[in-house]
C-alpha cells in the first residue's frame, strides 16, 4: 500500500485517477474492495485489494475488451438487407450486392459520421477499443481522393471524437477472385495494387501517429480471394510484428473457390504456406475441418469470431469447443455492425455451440463459469489481435475498463462469476455504466460523453443517405 499512498497524496501527478470497486476481476480471480490507480498516460499503475473507499466508486469493475473486427460503414445498412431478393435463396452473396450498392453513395463526411456513431455504440456496449478493418479507400467510381488516405483519416478523426482505442487496419483488396479477375463495379472503391497500398498505408500510419499513444496500425490483406499469393507475402513483410488480419474460411463457396485454385482448403493452405504467428488474426474460420481447428489453435494466432454477424449472414458455426480444448485463442468482433452488443456476441457464440452439440455450458470448466471463460478468452484474444497492452486489470496495462451498473436489479448483491453470467445471459448493454479507454473516461451513467452531438450528426447523415438510395 505504500506506493499507493504516495500516489494518492499531494505528489500524485495531475490527471491521476483513482477508482474504487466493490469487486473486480483481476488476473488471479475476483477481488473485493479494489483500488485502482490510473496514471495520466492511461495506464494502470497499481491495483490493491482490501482498500478503503476513495475516488470514483463503482460496483463491479472488469477489464474492457477490444472489438477485434469492424467495418464501420456497414452499421448504416442495418435493416436494409432483410428482404428476399429475386434469387431462389437469399445468401451472403446477395447481401454483398446490397452492400456494394450502398457504397456507391457514401461520402467522406458520411463515413466519418457513421464511424463516430458506431464507435460510440461500441463504447456504450463495453468495448474499450476497436480494430477497424478498413477497406473503402477511394471515390465512387474508383478514383483515389487527392489525399490517398482520406477515408482512413476519417476513421482516425472519428476515433479522436469518441475516444475509442483504435487499431487501424488498412486493407489490401486487389482482385475480384482467386483467378485474378478484375474488380467488379461494387469493389472499385476498395482496389489498390500493392505499391499504391503501401503509399496509402504510410499516410494512414502518419494519421494514426497523431492519436494518443495507445493507437496502433496494422495490415489487412482482405482474404485469399482478394489478394494474390505474392501480395499476401508482401503484406506479411509490411506488417512485421504489427497486427495482421485477414478474413478466412467464412463461406462454403469461398472454401470451394480456394480449393479449386490452390489445391487446399483455405486454413490448411495458409498454415502450409506461411508461418502463422501470434500477430495474426484470422477472421471467422467458420469453415474448418477438425484437423484445421487443431492446426490453427496450435499457431498461437487469434481466431476473430463475430457471432452475431455470422448468424446474420448464415456463415456457419465455429467449432469453439474443440478449438478451446486445443488451447486456441479467440476474440470477438462486431463485423457488419448490424447490432452492437458485447454481451449478445458472447451469448450467441455459446448458444451456437449448445444448439449444435445439444449440450449446456459448453466451454465452462469446474473452476470457471461459462461467462467467465468466454469473457477472459475474449479479453486476451482481443488485446493480442489489436497489438494492445490491455485485457487485464494489472499494472502496466492500459486502463481499458468497464463498470457494471451496481443498481441493476439482476446484479443486486451478486458476486464473482455469477455477475458475469447474469450480464452475458440475462442482461445487455444497459448494464454497462462506465467505460474507460486507456484511462479516457468516455462513458458515464451508460452514456457516451458526446452522445448527443454524435447522434444528431448520424441522424442528419442517415436522413440524407436514405434520400439517395
Ligand atoms: Zn469482415
TrEMBL record:
GO molecular function ontology, one term from the record: metal ion binding
Keywords on record: Hydrolase, Metal-binding, Zinc
Residues forming the Amidohydrolase-related domain are 60-441
Domain named Formimidoylglutamate deiminase N-terminal: which ranges?
Answer: 17-55
Co-factor(s): Zn(2+)
Q: Name one GO cellular component term.
A: cytosol
Q: Which Pfam families match?
A: Amidohydro_1, HutF_N
**Keyword Metal-binding listed:** yes
- Hydrolase recorded as keyword: yes
Q: What are the EC numbers?
A: 3.5.3.13
NCBIfam families xrefs: hutF (TIGR02022), PRK09229.1-5 (NF006684)
Q: What is this protein called?
A: Formimidoylglutamate deiminase
Native organism is Roseibium aggregatum
